[in-house]
Amino acid sequence: MFISPFLRSLLLLAICSILAHCLSSRAASASSIISPAKVRQVSWKPRAFVYEGFLTDLECDHLISLAKSELKRSAVADNMSGKSKLSEVRTSSGMFIPKAKVSFIHPSLFARSLF
Q: Minimal CA–CA distance to 73: which of 104, 95, 47?
């Protein structure tokens, strides 16, 4: 499956939040630290960074396959009611992997999150 470099980068940003909570409760080890030399800024507003080599192509493909069926259009908060609603201006999509599905994460990713 071909995924554009930009989409792969956006996926990486989404995955970082998943892995961050796994890593935050454990002491940092040499294998869980990202070298600043491998970080590339792609945008300042909004802030977006690419972490080279953070995920393999196989890991990206696996996470994409998990996410595809759950991917939903992002909503915005209605100013009057505070409820979520779709907007023609916001064009992003997103999903979260619930804790109950963490076991479906690729074994190499899961192993790295245990450090």
A: 95
